[in-house]
Write a structure and sequence with these properties.
- The protein is α+β, with helices and mostly antiparallel strands.
- The protein has one domain: Winged helix-like DNA-binding domain superfamily/Winged helix DNA-binding domain (Arc Repressor Mutant, subunit A, Orthogonal Bundle), CATH 1.10.10.
- It is built from six helices and three strands; from the N terminus they run αααβααββα.
- The protein has a three-stranded antiparallel beta sheet.
- β2 and β3 form a beta hairpin.
- α1 packs antiparallel against α6.
Length: 110
């Protein structure tokens, strides 16, 4: 097992994952924002398959953590809510991705 971390290190890395990012819904939202930089509520709703209330609560949590910013405006007298991933959110998503890949790589294959 030269050049690979021990399985215990991989398991510890899994235990240490950022719980905010690790939630499947929030991971999906951050992945969409990571590649698109910003998206409106309707796009995220359609992309995620979440309900309005569920998406709203996950977005509030991501905003609380400083991972996304929200911009509310009106377009043709209709409200438009746009979310953008922050630098902190990008770092958290990148760190999560590296951590999960490293943890999985450290586990033995069948």
């Amino acid at each position: 097992m030269e050049g690979r971390a021990s399985p215990q290190a991989g398991l510890q890395a899994i235990a240490d994952l950022d719980r905010t990012v690790h939630s499947p819904a929030r991971l999906m939202i951050l992945a969409v924002l990571y590649v698109s930089e910003e998206a409106d509520f309707a796009f995220l709703l359609d992309s995620s398959g979440l309900t309005r209330g569920n998406l709203s609560s996950h977005m509030a949590r991501l905003e609380e953590e400083g991972y996304v910013t929200v911009r509310k405006e009106f377009v043709a007298r209709r409200p438009l809510t746009v979310y953008q991933i922050t630098r902190q959110g990008r770092r958290a998503f990148s760190a999560y991705r590296q951590q999960i890949m490293s943890a999985l790589a450290s586990l033995p294959e069948e």
